[in-house]
Write a structure and sequence with these properties.
Distance between the termini: 55 Å
Number of domains: 1
Order of helices and strands: HHHHEE
Length: about 70
């Protein structure tokens, strides 16, 4: 398999799926590593704000610090 095809197989899921099982078994591992994030990690994600940080809660025209 040509180098260009290997890179395409790493990047393009549809192309990778179109390869035979034998061709997929010959692909070297992607140097970027595993590209999945587990559910536990996602549950702790907070959009860039540390989970210990209080947020501002606004109701009508009043904003107060809110710590759940």
């Amino acid at each position: 398999m040509k180098k260009v095809d290997v890179i395409r197989a790493w990047k393009d899921e549809a192309y990778r799926a179109s390869l035979s099982e034998e061709e997929r078994s010959q692909l070297p591992k992607n140097p970027a590593g595993l590209m999945e994030v587990n559910d536990d990690y996602l549950r702790g994600a907070s959009g860039g704000i540390p989970t210990w940080c209080c947020t501002v809660w606004c109701s009508d025209s009043c904003c107060v610090n809110y710590c759940p």
